[in-house]
Request: fold
Amino acid sequence: MTAPDRFPPLDVAVIGCGAVVERLYRPALIKLESRRIVRVAALVDPNPARTAALARQFRAARTFATPAEALASVAPTLTIVTSPPAMHVEHTVAALAAGSHVLCEKPMAVDADEAASMVAAAQAAHRVLAVGMTRRFYPCLAEAQRLIASGAIGEPYRFTYREGHVYDWPTTTDAAFQRASGGGGVLVDLGSHVLDFLLALFGPLTVTAYADDAHAEGVEVNCRLELSGQHADGTAQLSWNQPLLTGLQVIGSRGELIVDPSRLDLVRWRRQGATLEAVPSNATWPSDLALSGKRGRPSRHEQCIYYEVVQVLRAAMRGEDVPASGEAGLAVVRMVEACFRQATSLRLPWLEPSDQARLDARHWKGERWVAA
Amino acid sequence: MGGGVAVVGAGGFVGGRLIEMRIIEGRSDFVPIVRAARSLGRVANLGIRHRIADASDSDALARAIAGCSAVVNLTKGDDDKIVSTTRSIYTAAVDAGARLIVHLSSAVVFGQLDRPDLPDDAAPTPVSWMPYAREKALAEDFLRERMGDGRVAIVVLRPSLVWGPGSPWVLGPARELVAGAAYLIGDGRGICDLIYADNLVRSIEAVVAHAEPPSGFYNVGDDETTTWREYYAALAAGLELDVAAVRMVSADRYRPGMRDTLQRVQRSRMYRWAKDRVSPDTRATIKQRLARGLVARSPRESPVAAPAVTREIWQLQTSRYRLPTARFARTFGHHNTTTFRTGMDASLEWLRFIGLAAGDAKPRVPGSSTLSPEAAR
Reply:
């Protein structure tokens, strides 16, 4: 049976109403409601002040303290899971079991077993499970993929990816800074996006070495990964406290490519021996659920959320693909686990040798990983 | 001095380094106090026990510093909050029964020195053109009036330019050197009055460790006297660049430029009022359009920018004297164990670490590479 060209507004439930929803999903959902693509039907958070504040902007929304109450009361087409990472598996599986499709925020889960159980639950329920790898909607990624596929850069590729700045997300608790609740630090936070970005560009990659700066009771604030794939090798470096020269540099046999994730609209590249030039991206994404509807191009990270929700709904209603499926999210979680398995102490240039030796002795791997 | 040491502003550059150095040493008597959970991101690797309090709320702060015998003020907020925060920290420290306040002021309160032997307890320049200097001076006045009341010992430290890995005084010049936009005023003969971050941290700790720290004002700085040319030359050599390519600007007189106007606007209350009311979305759009405008003008790589001399840099680079630091050494001892050479080596290694200096990939000209916090979500 063919899906209709248009749909009535589809009910959406939001589990977890913290800063991610306030700053990213709220504007996208307001726009989606105004275009009659969705109706926010349920807002779930144990903190009633948060759900009440959001409910003022979504008139049809009912507020709930727990996902169980919400899923028993409404039947959302899509559930957006933005609760703390340690709760993703429970909330995702519950939503899938209730017949809802799910868009789960990154990191998908705190370990691969949990992520795998989420994928299995989606398969069993025949529902879409997408992971919020919002950078898949960056036009610059599409342009970089096009340039690489065209052979302009030339195999084999050697890449360097850096991303770092002083942590500035308005988190309301310190849950993100504890391994038990956050699953890790900058690798889990920024790294989920970065690893997914690199996988989307180069295909499967293996972690060959990993170092970070976490003490026994802390999470990594700086880390460095060595990665290797069939056609590409390189490093990735992430930081929550250093102003790294953010961006991806790819050097191939025929040219060089530079992607700056703060510039969604273009990449820079050059043939060997030529000058770098900026190339704008023409990539677009559907703006609604219509078969031949409008398309648009996000110019900022926040705008990608809109296109992401639309695409997940298109996958649910039309069987289209989602850029980052549960399987893609699982691949990232597995890479993060591979990093943590082989973690060693990172050399920090601002430490004197004696302090570096003390840091090495206090490194979390020695005191934590075996017990975990 | 027994009891804990409350570090107010532990999420900042100096505060973060202080906590890191002490934790690595195995010390647990330093208590980081931050305004919000997000400030812990910088030091989340240390797994420290922290307390959250807004430094401008003296009641909340008094609760947070309870049990601490010393309070170190390393806060860095808006200029117009410097005095009120200083007042709040003083009140909280007295209420909590602390014995010592270590307050970080700045050498900037004196503006440009016209003599080499200015006493440490000299009054700051009455009215500086720079709001930051003005407010820091007023905060000093507030503490000066309370030094004799016997309720709490007050040690005011005046560091010069705090440099080292992570410092804007390393990152800024290095970025300008790589971009070909660096300049030196008057052949770079002016005095670059520096204190390496770790030397400053050790100085703070020396005050805290003193059995009976005498209240007063103490200038702190590195041992070496360095000119701006020597500073830039050392950075340039580490970046494999030629300092001779740095452009020279006449020291005859200062000519205000666009950057001064921009800085004045950004410091104004009206600007901050408007900024607080513009959504992050709109701010991001404005930034992006500005960035796009720059690329549209220069589709190919064109790294060379004209020197943009600001009044602050002009004043710093034309300094003839550095602040004397003998009083601190006489009272608290000598703690500058990092020399200019070792500090520069660490700074250059840090520049390689962040990707600015040659390492596993050649240096690139930094563009608009600051991602919004949203991009990490």
Observations:
- The first helix of chain A runs from residue 19 to 34.
- Confidence is low (pLDDT under 50) at residues 367-372 of chain A.
- The two ends of chain A are 50 Å apart (CA to CA).
- DSSP finds twelve helices and 17 strands in chain A.
